[in-house]
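Take a specimen:
=====
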Amino acid sequence: MPAIVIPYRGDAKRRLPSSLRAAVAVAMLGDVVEAAAQVGRVLVVTDDASVVPADAEIVLDPGEGLGRAVAVGLATVREHALVVNADLPAATPDALRRLADAGLALVEAADGTTNALSLPDPGVYAALYGPGSAERLLQLPEAHVRGGGGRQVAFVMIHLPRRNKRLTIRAKRTHCDRLYGP
């Protein structure tokens, strides 16, 4: 079973109106944690422990950006790790298991950034988030991402199925209601 590291910042969704930002971010986090908890140990890296569901461990975010937050979360993991962004409410347990089964892999977002990583050895993590991050991870020199036994490996890109949108919206409402009331 992999450990799942989920970096979370409630103010990260700046495209949303400020009146909705926190509620939507918390709802998405709840969806991702719910799916991840069915797969393995869950660690949420955040500076706001009050929004973390009870079935997740809290790792304090040092406030130095996404790459550093992920590194701090991974520092507590010795087993296979998945890094899954908190804004992926369509993530399912089956999709996360498929990601883990892919070995050293990434899931690219539509805009070329990275939505999720599978790291059989958390020590190969490279903080390459931002525009074009998926392509930069795919282009890492193979020497940087050595597998077990000195064997050289490289990231592979996989695509994961998505949840039905109606189910996702219903789940978001449920998580918001828990925190903010109906």
Remarks:
- The domain at 3-180 is CATH 3.90.550.10 (Spore Coat Polysaccharide Biosynthesis Protein SpsA; Chain A).
